[in-house]
Amino acid sequence: MADSIGKNRTILLLGNYRPALILARNLAANGYKIIVGMQGSDHCCEHSRFVSQMWNHSDCTEHGSLFFHELAHFAKVHDLAAIFPVAERYVRFFAENSRCLSGLPPVIMMDKQLVKKCLDKLFMMRLAKELGIPMAEFTVARTADELDKDLDRLGLPVVIRPLGSVKRLNGDKAIVVRNRTEVDFLDIDWQQNREGLLLQKKFSGLRHNIYFAAAEGRIVRYLHAVITRTDRTDGTGLAVDGITVEPDVELRRQTHSLIKALNYSGVGCAQYLVNESTREASFLEINPRIAGNHAVPEYAGLELGRFLLAMVLTGKPDLTPYTGPAGIRYSWTSGHLVATKFSLRNGEISAGEALRSWLLAVVPALRADVHMIFSWSDPLPALHALWVALPPLWRR
Hints:
The strands form 3 sheets. Strands 9, 10, 11, 12, 13, 14, 15 and 16 form an 8-stranded mixed beta sheet that branches. Helix 3 crosses helix 4 and helix 11 runs antiparallel to helix 12. By secondary structure, this protein is of the alpha/beta class. It is 36% helix and 22% strand. It folds into 4 domains: 100 residues, Rossmann fold, CATH 3.40.50.20; 65 residues, 2-Layer Sandwich (Dna Ligase, domain 1); 126 residues, D-amino Acid Aminotransferase, Chain A, domain 1; 63 residues, no CATH class.
């Protein structure tokens, strides 16, 4: 793997997020020179000693043609060996503009049609239903009248999500409405959500992440993790604490069914909600990319980044079966702190509750085996993230 791209060792990572930081550390340790695009919400890669350069470029969503022009020029000047889209917006962008990639270095991602299928929430939910995979009842509302009727039919509480995977609804990936008062306070821009909103009966349970690598519909690397806390009080949002567990037989079977039906080749993360008391489950989605908590499967030995790199560049990734171990605790301290600050600023919690939340973030951080950003060999990104996460008064 270390010599798969010959003398040229420069890779551009797109998306300045915590998974790009983990990829940069792992790939740099294997002899690659890493450049990272500036755009992203975590702003951690510019502080890493494993990143040799940051690239400031146009927004790929708002200025797609200009971004391609800048990318082609940058790739030529820096003699890039590969372009690795990490954040979902770039994975989606390259999948939707695959005919424009001629002249660029290899793009490290899965088959473009496979990516588009996985990012199509409605397609994936219908596929899961066809395969007999358990899932909470769902429907699509495209107008305010349809929304009102569908909420009555499904019965509250209901989870509402945009159909577009990179879109947000009032700033969130998903909104939970529990009663009619919350429904009345919904402020939905139907012009922005013309394709509709996905409504799903709320299923109570913890989120289970299945990290995997697959080749031609067969899973070869596998890790099961449970998210024990997210950055939202209602359980939606991003994971901030969790632990890996022994693979659940039924979830493993369901994931295998989906991967086989998709003839999946590459890496990804399948997500389910599981009621810990009844063991009932509800399928959520498959993310066809490097996941946000990429530090977890890398620490567990799955090496998903290198698997995908080898698959695209050589067509010969290591297909030796491997299952990651149980008992790995992980934490994202700055994510926990930012979420608490957000809730405090929006009036969702009191100052006392915020203080307790900040103190609670310390415990999982101390007992974690792996952190989403912090590394003893590369501490500056995590220190910067903590500085940004703390309120101004605490900084002083």
